[in-house]
Design goal:
single chain, about 575 residues, alpha/beta, Rossmann fold, 13-stranded mixed beta sheet, about 35% helix, hydrolase activity, hydrolase, EC 3.1.1.-, Neuroligin/BSAL, AB_hydrolase_fold
Length: about 575
């Protein structure tokens, strides 16, 4: 899922306050790389030194016969590689920027390394961006504030999206998940080379948001990552979410759709090799990228291919623990979601609803809400009669019985339903599965609800963080942003430091509470106490138990009970 545009403007400016950059060349196992050292002024006015190396190839260009294939490692450099500019994004389509520059030669990564006195090795944090598995690029994410303040080496990875990353014919001709394989290759590259950039290869944390968070979860399922990284943070990106994977039928439909668009033969099992050959021969990748848009009526996403994602491991994270223990329990994990994650769903699927909430009769609004609830619950119901009962129950659960005319509260309830149905409940399942009978590693759960200091007009009803709202705080609010004064970043900086302390503490030790002192102790989750940390709209962090217990009970117990009775009658 995309981070809302407001936060992209806030976070992803390339320029903060710099002194003149100094070029710097280092020797690595893959050859010499030239980057630069800068002085970065943080929002509170303090200055830090960082080195940055941009657009480093980790994979061979996935073009021609390598399109729709697992990536190959990049070749070593015969001469010094100039790492002063970001690599181009992988092919994708933006309605607002249909002619944006992009390239299939996109398997690049950016590195931001703190520069302090001494020769200690810093923990490493690898960020995987979100974007519905159809968009995203490393150049939108500026890692220097997090690297400088948190004293970690930041790595941001480009990977294939849309059909280039996730086309699947559901056989060995094009099994899919190339974007996940790209991420894995990048993580291996970091493991093998990060010591040259001041990183500690024995302390690697991967983290990501939305589709990037789901990617992080899928990386923990893949046994080939054993010993490569130690910790993982999934922000509003649960592996259990329906949007995070495609079924075999969905994958077939997408491959069929793309084949028809390019006059390739239909992807029948006996013809899939010809389909893949035909699609590989398409010269104008920008035309194919057009069908990577998240605004189409189909989705590109990972599949259970029994190679990267095995059905056995996927069932384990879905809450079916078996022996031996699940592979993903080898990694310490932070898993969480945002209080208003669902606002993104309302905005993307029902764009007129939010505007109309202020003017439409309440009866019409309830009809709209009922339709949205029915759409979400239909896959969970065995028949239409049961579906009606489930929708009635949800309408009651997410209604303001005491004050049904409170429009702002009604908006929040609609958002809560979307948040729960698309993000929170799935994240809760990820948390419970990871913690189940796990005496090897720790599980930490959070809910983030600290909104950006200035909400967009028309969103006054939101008293918390929307989808992607935590990202600027995690990255440290780079300042001098177009349209936003440094004062805004300065205002947000104290809370941003709280968030960065938890994230970088976890990267350093596996415990978000140390070595830096934190505002509130964040206790590990267990099935008895269900501890979590809350990042509120105002004030500092709060420790709690049984996050949104009533809403969880509704989705995990009450709705399945209605469905079960429906199957028996």
């Amino acid at each position: 899922m995309d981070v809302i545009k407001l936060f992209f403007f806030i976070l992803f400016l390339e320029t903060v306050y710099y002194t003149e950059a100094i070029e710097r060349t280092i020797n690595t196992k893959v050859g010499s790389i030239k980057g630069e050292t800068d002085t970065v002024q943080l929002p509170d006015g303090t200055s830090k030194q960082i080195a940055k190396f941009l657009g480093i190839p980790y994979g061979a260009p996935p073009v021609g016969d390598l399109r729709f294939e697992k990536p190959l490692p990049a070749e070593k450099f015969n001469q010094t590689f100039i790492a002063l500019d970001h690599g181009l994004p992988c092919p994708q389509y933006h309605m607002s920027r249909p002619k944006a520059l992009m390239s299939e030669d996109c398997l690049k990564l950016d590195i931001y390394s703190p520069q302090t006195s001494g020769s200690k090795a810093y923990p490493v944090m690898i960020y995987i961006y979100g974007g519905s598995f159809t968009s995203g690029q490393s150049s939108k994410y500026n890692g220097q504030n997090l690297a400088a303040y948190g004293e970690v080496v930041m790595v941001i990875v480009n990977y294939r999206v849309g059909p280039f990353g996730f086309l699947s014919t559901e056989d060995d001709q094009a099994p899919g998940n190339y974007g996940l394989w790209d991420q894995h290759l990048a993580i291996k590259w970091v493991k093998n080379n990060i010591d040259s950039f001041g990183g500690d290869a024995s302390r690697i944390t991967i983290f990501g948001q939305s589709a990037g968070g789901a990617s992080v979860a899928f990386q923990t399922l893949y046994s080939g990552n054993k010993g490569i990284f130690q910790r993982a943070i999934s922000e509003s990106g649960p592996a259990n979410a329906e949007w995070a994977t495609n079924s075999r039928d969905e994958a077939y439909f997408n491959a069929n759709f793309l084949a028809l668009k390019f006059n390739c033969s239909l992807p029948q099992k006996q013809a899939s090799s010809e389909v893949v050959r035909c699609l590989k021969s398409v010269k104008d990748f920008s035309l194919m990228a057009k069908y990577a848009s998240a605004h189409n009526d189909f989705k590109w996403a990972p599949t259970v291919d029994n190679d990267f994602i095995t059905s056995q491991e996927f069932k384990r994270i879905q809450g079916e623990p078996t022996s031996p223990k699940a592979f993903f329990q080898n990694f310490d994990m932070i898993i969480g979601s945002n209080g208003y994650d669902g606002q993104y769903i309302l905005k993307s699927r029902y764009p007129s609803l939010l505007a109309q909430m202020k003017i439409l009769p309440l009866g019409v609004l309830r009809t709209i809400m009922r339709g949205a609830i029915m759409e979400r619950l239909r896959p969970l119901s065995p028949n239409n009669k049961t579906l009606t009962a489930m929708v009635d129950a949800a309408m009651f659960e997410y209604s303001n019985v005491e004050n049904p005319n409170d429009r702002n509260f009604n908006l929040k309830q609609i958002s809560d339903f979307a948040t729960d149905g698309v993000f929170f409940i799935a994240a809760s399942k990820d948390v419970a599965s990871h913690a189940y009978n796990n005496d090897r590693t720790k599980t930490y759960q959070y809910e983030f609800n600290h909104a950006y200091p200035v909400l967009p007009p028309g969103n006054e009803w939101m008293q918390g963080a929307t989808h992607g709202g935590e990202v600027p705080y995690v990255f440290g609010f780079p300042s001098s942003l177009p349209g936003y004064s440094p004062q805004i970043a300065k205002t947000a900086w104290p809370f941003s430091k709280i968030v960065m302390d938890y994230w970088t503490n976890f990267a350093k030790t596996g415990n978000p509470n140390k070595p830096r002192n934190v505002a509130t102790e964040w206790k590990a989750y267990n099935s008895m106490d269900e501890d979590y940390l809350y990042f509120p709209m105002k004030g500092t962090t709060e420790a709690g138990h049984y996050l949104n217990a009533g809403r969880k009970n509704f989705w995990l117990n009450y709705l399945p009970l209605i469905a079960s009775h429906g199957r028996e009658t």
